Amino acid sequence: MPASRILGRLLGRKTRNQESSPTNIPAPASTSPTVPIPSPTIFIAMQNSGILPDALYRPIIEYISEEKALYQLTLASQILRLEAQRVLYHTLVKDDLDTHKGFLKSITRDPRLASYVREYSLMATKTIDKELWGLLALGLQSMTHLSSLGFRDHGGGPSASKILPNCTFQLDSLNWECNSDEDFLIKFLATQPRIRKLSLAPSWGLDTFREVPPTYLPDLEQCCGGHGVLRSFLPNHRITRVRWIPDLEEPLRPDPIVLSHINQSVKMLSFGGYFGRMELPLIATHLQSLEFLELIGLHVSVRVCFEGVLDQYSYAGPDLYRRQTCS
Hints:
Leucine-rich repeat, LRR (right-handed beta-alpha superhelix); 37% helix; alpha/beta; 2 domains
């Protein structure tokens, strides 16, 4: 039986079967005739009196992943509507711009819905129009409990100053794939001490070096980006996981500062991406603290050249190596 019908019965919503028997739920075939089956009205009374806790039905609703089923639950009863909306508005990671418009209009009209949002991501593949820019600014301000944010404008232009001012949420994770946003974004990061996971565009910080002070993002553990990102964040933070994605204009010689900090604290390194990268032997002697090494875009025919570098690692999966001395 669909979850919406089960929960509807539990909280008193009539189904077709109940319409012909408004006072009793039909007994299952295995139920003894001598065992009375409670009336739906009993559950309504229990809920109204607080005897039926939300802990009874909330886990069931949270388990439902199909949006259609959740929308059906919003029609079942007042209680189920609130619980279904809590799930429906928890996460939006789609790229369809019209979907985002509808979502943002809903939460800006109803602060209760905005308070449910925990994860929001828009990686635009089409041009964002003026209406959506305005909705993004207002919508992000209303997401006071947001913990994970991802954003990229179509074309990757600067966007932070358009939509991040006056936001009060405290993020755990930020994936910001816009270019030329360095100055404003660093000011924004100063207001986000809880961020543990940070991902920035590979070209971020390549033109002008910006060292981020240790008081910014004191709990930062994971960092993703190009040479400029690593040069900005590694020196003053205890980062243990790095995804190094070289940019097209990234230098092909290793930066001693970046390498020294990789050697000191990084335990897992993912190295490579869409464009060419510096040769692995140039950084091999600085990977002593690594436990896992992932090589992106390294073909088998090329890997033969690096057999000496990889001798101290054991194969742990596609392009993933684990240091043999690690337990």
